[in-house]
Write a structure and sequence with these properties.
Blueprint: H1 2-18, H2 22-30, H3 34-47, H4 52-64, H5 68-80, H6 86-91, H7 102-108, E1 127-132, E2 140-148, E3 153-159, E4 165-173, E5 178-185, E6 190-194
Antiparallel strand pairs: 1-2, 2-3, 3-4, 4-5, 5-6
Length: 195
């Protein structure tokens, strides 16, 4: 009799999940009832396969429930439904267990902001450079170029042995289709370049 009761309870839960409304799925998610929320969101995406929010909530619920493989499949469907956001996937706590998984990283790599070729045009400049000037032979200045802001900005930090220093922020302005540099030094000088 116990087996029949458990079986019937499982069927009722499955039926309830199939009939789940977005509000019910949301309530289960808010209560952190991950398996139940996953079942409810699975039912929602079966009815609405182009619903990116439901796919994302399904992925988050599955990841929190310890179902990494299914969570990755749901993330792929989320991206396919047009909801993929690198920042969102990297910021929600439920996906934390997946962040070191190479499959997760490969899935999100194309979503990284500033990943297009235009944004990478000045990557050759990255590194620590000794700058030698013909005007000051025997002395070298230092120029350190690093990527910041998730790879969207190049930061330059320039120093000379005589105390002159300056820094610049450089980025590709996709809206205008040009690179921009803002330079500021310790002498009060500034330079703004577009090109």
């Amino acid at each position: 009799m116990r087996v029949l009761t458990v079986f019937l309870a499982g069927l009722m839960a499955a039926g309830a999940a199939r009939a789940a409304t977005p509000e019910q799925a949301e309530a289960l998610f808010a209560k952190r009832e991950w398996r139940e929320a996953a079942a409810a969101y699975q039912a929602l995406v079966e009815r609405e396969p182009t619903n990116p929010q439901a796919w994302f909530r399904l992925a988050r619920s599955l990841a929190a429930a310890g179902e990494a493989g299914r969570a990755l499949d749901a993330l792929q469907s989320w991206i396919g439904a047009g909801g993929g956001s690198y920042a969102a996937a990297m910021s929600v706590a439920e996906l934390e267990p997946l962040r070191n998984d190479p499959r997760f990283l490969a899935l999100l790599e194309p979503l990284k902001p500033c990943n297009a070729a235009e944004f990478r045009q000045f990557d050759f400049w990255l590194g620590d450079w000794d700058v030698i000037s013909p005007a000051n032979p025997g002395s070298s200045s230092r120029n350190r170029i690093t990527l910041i802001n998730g790879g969207c900005t190049l930061r330059e930090e320039y120093t000379t042995p005589l105390g002159y220093a300056g820094s610049s922020l450089n980025f590709y302005d996709a809206g205008r289709g040009v690179w921009h540099q803002t330079w500021i030094d310790n002498q009060g000088g500034a330079l703004y370049l577009d090109g």
